[in-house]
Design brief:
aa-tRNA-synth_II; aa-tRNA-synth_II/BPL/LPL; alpha+beta; single chain; BirA Bifunctional Protein, domain 2; 9 strands; 2 domains; 18% strand; seven-stranded mixed sheet
Amino acid sequence: MLKQLETLEKEAIQEIEQAESLKVLNDLRVKYLGKKGPMTEIMKQMGKLSNEEKPLVGAKANEVRTEISTKIKYKQEGLEEAALMKQLESESIDVTLPGTKIPTGTTHLLTQVIDELTDMFVGMGYRIAEGPEVELDYYNFEALNLPKGHPARDMQDSFYITENTLLRTQTSPVQARTMENHDFKNGPIKIICPGKVYRRDNDDATHSHQFTQIEGLVVGENITFADLKGTLTVLAKHMFGEDREIRLRPSFFPFTEPSVEMDISCFACGGEGCRTCKGTGWIEILGSGLVHPRVLEMSGIDSSKYSGFAFGLGPERVAMLKYGVDDIRHLYTNDLRFSKQFIAKEMGER
């Protein structure tokens, strides 16, 4: 039986050394060390041996089992290392090759214009104020000197949800809410109100039922028309060029008195008259004026002590004029061919 064990050991070691895969090696483990393998069979026959032979055969059997297990372990480690090296070679990456360019997005043209405007006003000491898009009729109209039945309401055909709630037609309600809650112990009011507004309008090249506005409000002591004019001049030069001039024309808005429309000298022809300015040399940009005393009083502000100015402009109109966009619908239809023409400055050239 000792000779049988020696022969078994030689055969097992030879086959283990010739194994070329982990599967073959695992099959050899089962073959020689499994419950139905030759080692198990030899151990079952030890009961027939004499007392003198049993220790010798038992010791040899343990020696052979240990040797076979050790050989299998070393062979397994070698095969695993070889498999790993083969995998690394097949999956190697040449880090000196140029990378694949991944296309990245940028901000929408309308967002760029809004960001540019808000950055300018924040730099001038304004803060950004926001309010609900579903607004009360009181804040959207009545607090702005537009009582029920006022003819100016017809100019803003509205989306009413209930008798007293609607989708806001302007961002002016944010101004009314701000004035109502402001404590002048904390300083004057100086805010801009960017946001979406809604009006029942037929969509065409220059109109949309949903668009954006940026309105500004300053209220404090000794605020004059000169402050408004200075602010609008800075706005015009920042957005359309340092050589822009402004022109203020009398107008009417229920919440300001006096009210004016602001025009800028045409940036396309320099004021000589062209298609962009319809031959006038001027382009209408926004409406503005001094805050109506009645609006101040309705917000609980003493109009004999405090005064202010307000203005409102449409970022869509600014974008269309500044970048030559001929249809407002281009700003909303998500056509990538259009959007890719306007890459945000911070993203650089592509």
